[in-house]
Amino acid sequence: MLASMAEMVLTAKKAGYAVGQFNFSNLELAQAALEAAEELRAPLILGVTEGGLRHMGVEFAAAIGLTAARQAKVPVSLHLDHAGSFDLIMSCIKAGFNSVMFDGSRLPIEENIRMTKEICRVAHAMGVSVEAEVGAIGGVEDDLSVAAADALVADPEEAVNFWQQTKVDALAVAVGNAHGMYKTIPNIRTDIVQAVAGAIPVPVVLHGGSGTPDDIIRRAIAAGCAKINVSTENQVAFTSTLRRLLTEDPELADSRKCLGPARAVVKGSIKERITVFGAAGKAVVG
Ligand SMILES: [Zn+2]
Q1: What is residue 38's predicted lDDT score, i.e. its pLDDT?
Q2: Residue 285 forms part of a structural domain
Q3: What pLDDT was estimated at residue 184?
Q4: Which residue range is the domain that position 158 belongs to?
Q5: Looking at the predicted structure, is the pLDDT value of residue 88 above 90?
Q6: Residue 150 annotated to the active site
Q7: Residue 52: its pLDDT value, please?
């Protein structure tokens, strides 16, 4: 069933687990996440970035996500990831997304607050959940690129003040995390997660979950992260399986013969993440 992101992550924060947001940019990645969540009876957030929307189109992306939600026995939210404009957010809400992230982290803080408040006002009136970001998160995701040196660690006071002014449903905070795959073990500042999450009712969101070691994930959840975004590692699992199968059999012509196994590999990888997040068995199954 289509379910509220805000409610899912609030429940998760209170109970001490995290809901996984798994991004999709094609049918198989969405199916892999859905099958993984259903098998583990876990709540699920299906995310789409602006790049994903350019690839699939807003209507196709919404159709895939909403079909997944409708078919699912577990709660599923369809979430727009890292949107930079009011117009894109509105067109996704119109298409049926029930959760949006406005990323104003590269704007001056006052402007980020002003725009986030405006988006919350409109989205909340329509029953749509809102995530926002304070302090730019490093790495590369689609068009977003923040140099490692610029990957600021957010000021906890500023983050708490941001929440008090905007009342977003989930707050992404830069805590030493980055998008993409880590080349070294990330120094996730769980003290900052704790300082922010302990002072606001809603959870902190950990972006760039790909490749993050399990013990760091568990510490972040204990500190108040209840939404963790994972994308790159699933893309890597997907394309490396395709590459292997196409290399092994240069005659392979039926795309289903590589897309199917690639989907199965991603499903396995997502099941491992959901288990580490503590979300297995947490869905209210109808
Ligand atoms: Zn992100």
Answers
A1: 98
A2: no
A3: 82
A4: 5-276
A5: yes
A6: no
A7: 98
260 C-alpha to center of ligand 1: Å? 27
Location of structure tokens 């709540």: 43
Going edge to edge, which strands form the sheet with 178-179? 144-146, 138-141, 178-179
Q: Collapsing DSSP states into helix, strand and coil, what is residue 70? A: helix
Is residue 281 one of the residues assigned to a domain?
Answer: no
Considering the domain boundaries, does residue 45 fall inside one?
A: yes
Ligand 1 centroid, distance to 141 Cα (angstroms): 7
Q: What one-character-per-residue DSSP string does 222-269 give?
A: HHTEEEEEE-HHHHHHHHHHHHHHHHH-TT---THHHHHHHHHHHHHH
Question: For the whole model, what pTM was predicted?
Answer: 0.94
**CA 140 to CA 157: how far, in whole Å?**
26
Displacement of CA 272 from its chain's centroid (Å): 16
Domain count, the chain: 1
SS3 label, residue 141: strand
CA of 286 to the centre of ligand 1 (A): 31
CB within 8 Å of 133: residues ≥ 6 apart: 82, 101, 102, 103, 104, 105, 112, 171, 172, 173, 174, 207
Distance from the alpha carbon of residue 81 to the mean position of ligand 1, in angstroms: 7
How many other CB atoms sit within 10 Å of the CB of residue 177?
30
pLDDT tier, 223 (very low <50, low <70, confident <90, very high otherwise): very high
Q: Give the DSSP H/E element, type plus range, for residue 270.
A: helix 256-276
Q: What are phi and psi of 113, to 5 degrees?
A: -65, -45
For tokens 């995290």, what's the residue?
A: 18
Q: What percent of the chain has pLDDT over 70?
A: 94
In a 13 Å sphere around the CA of 241, the CA atoms on its Cβ side amount to: 23
Q: What CATH number did the domain enclosing 68 receive? A: 3.20.20.70
Does residue 282 lie within any of the structural domains?
Answer: no
- Select which of 81, 142, 155, 169 is catalytic: 81
Q: What is the DSSP string of 16-65?
A: T--EEEEE-SSHHHHHHHHHHHHHHT--EEEEE-HHHHHHH-HHHHHHHH
